[in-house]
From TrEMBL:
CDD domains registered for this protein in UniProt: GH16_XET (cd02176)
Pfam families attached to this UniProt entry: Glyco_hydro_16 (PF00722), XET_C (PF06955)
Family: Belongs to the glycosyl hydrolase 16 family.
Signal peptide: 1-38
PTM text: Contains at least one intrachain disulfide bond essential for its enzymatic activity.
Domain GH16, chain residue ranges per copy: 36-236
Identification of the protein by name: Xyloglucan endotransglucosylase/hydrolase
Known EC number: 2.4.1.207
Main localization of the protein described in the UniProt heading: secreted
Keywords: Apoplast, Cell wall, Cell wall biogenesis/degradation, Disulfide bond, Glycosidase, Hydrolase, Secreted, Signal, Transferase
Gene3D superfamilies noted in UniProt: 2.60.120.200
Protein source organism: Sphagnum jensenii
Localization: Secreted, Cell wall; Secreted, Extracellular space, Apoplast
Length: 310
């Protein structure tokens, strides 16, 4: 029973969902009724019971659900992408992701939030594939009002092909923070008062995508994709979104999250000291590229690179 319960709980927050946490109780009940026989195989994502939360943005034949895990495949014919039906402004966005096993050279797998448009706000987790046995690199980037160029790259402290790990964005009017499991890996704070754009007015969609990017992904483009190893399949589970649904017809409705909203709490508006320690740990031990220290690219470091954290 304990195992069944656990499985039900996992399923209830299971991807396919992009579940609003607020509707979990209902989902949980449905899942409990469904029990643990999650054997149904959907040939396309659209056939899954969760299709009301997602649409396939690109190439339905490369997306499927097996045992409540969403799989996105890159084949010689195409990459693929799914996106949330809703747009959101501020909140908590999480995915459990297991990367392409074995050879994934030339394959880019991304989980990201984007408003789209020229002046887009965007928060990216991009996983750079590699040859079999060679490590994945995680690249992150943050765009505000169309300005990005804030790439950071880290090695991970685990093999992201072996298991599901959780990748999270927490976003409120003061801060965008990104996490790998429970470790904060970066933060972008609001310096609008100092004249820097901050993402706080555009709704974003939530996307997962995977496609060939041989020209730059692996060792700077030296190792192209090897289609004899296709399909390249990444697996998604445990999506979670706790946010405000953004409606273009009332664009300010989400702008001021109620004080009681958990992701707007003080510990997510400013960086607590234990989080500073995490950021430092990542920077010291795992960071292999940081735009802040790329003086060839930015002779004067961008504002947020030298501003003290608050
Ligand atoms: C591919 O990866 C899986 C999981 O890590 C492993 O069990 C399997 O042996 C690998 N296959 C090859 C051909 O390397
Ligand atoms: C791929 O593996 C090589 C060799 O271990 C490593 O230098 C590189 O950083 C890895 N990642 C990418 C994205 O090239």
């Amino acid at each position: 029973m304990a195992a069944a319960m656990r499985s039900a709980v996992l399923n209830s927050t299971g991807v396919m969902g992009f579940l609003m946490l607020s509707c979990c109780a209902m989902m949980m009940m449905m899942m409990m009724m469904k029990g643990s026989d999650a054997q149904t195989t959907y040939t396309t994502f659209a056939e899954s019971q969760y299709s009301n939360q997602f649409v396939i943005a690109w190439e339905p034949s490369n997306v499927w659900v097996v045992n409540d895990v969403l799989e996105l495949a890159v084949t010689e014919a195409s990459g693929t992408a799914v996106q949330s039906v809703n747009m959101y402004l501020f909140g908590y966005f999480r995915v459990g992701l297991k990367l392409v096993p074995n050879d994934s050279a030339g394959v880019l797998t991304a989980f990201y939030l984007s408003s789209g448009g020229n002046a887009h706000d965007e928060f990216d987790f991009e996983f750079l594939g590699n040859s079999s046995g060679q490590p994945y690199v995680l690249q992150t980037n943050i765009f505000a009002a169309g300005v990005g160029g804030r790439e950071q790259r880290i090695n991970l402290w685990f093999d992201p092909r072996a298991d599901f790990h959780t990748y999270t964005v927490i976003w409120n009017p003061q801060s965008v923070s990104m996490y790998v499991d429970d470790v904060m890996i970066r933060v972008f704070q609001n310096h609008e008062n100092e004249g820097q754009a901050y993402p706080n007015s555009q709704g974003v969609g939530v996307y997962s995508s995977s496609f060939e990017a041989s020209s730059w992904v692996t060792q700077g483009g030296k190792v192209p994709i090897d289609y004899s190893q296709a399909p390249f399949v990444s697996s998604y589970s445990n999506y979670g979104i706790d946010s405000c649904v953004f409606e273009a017809t009332s664009p300010t409705a989400c702008s001021n999250p109620p004080a009681g909203t958990w992701w707007n709490a003080q510990e997510y508006q400013s960086v607590p000291s234990y989080r500073v320690t995490q950021l430092q740990w990542v920077k010291t031990n795992y960071m292999i590229y940081n735009y802040c220290t790329d003086t060839a690219r930015y002779p004067t470091p961008p504002f947020e690179c030298t501003a003290p954290l608050f």
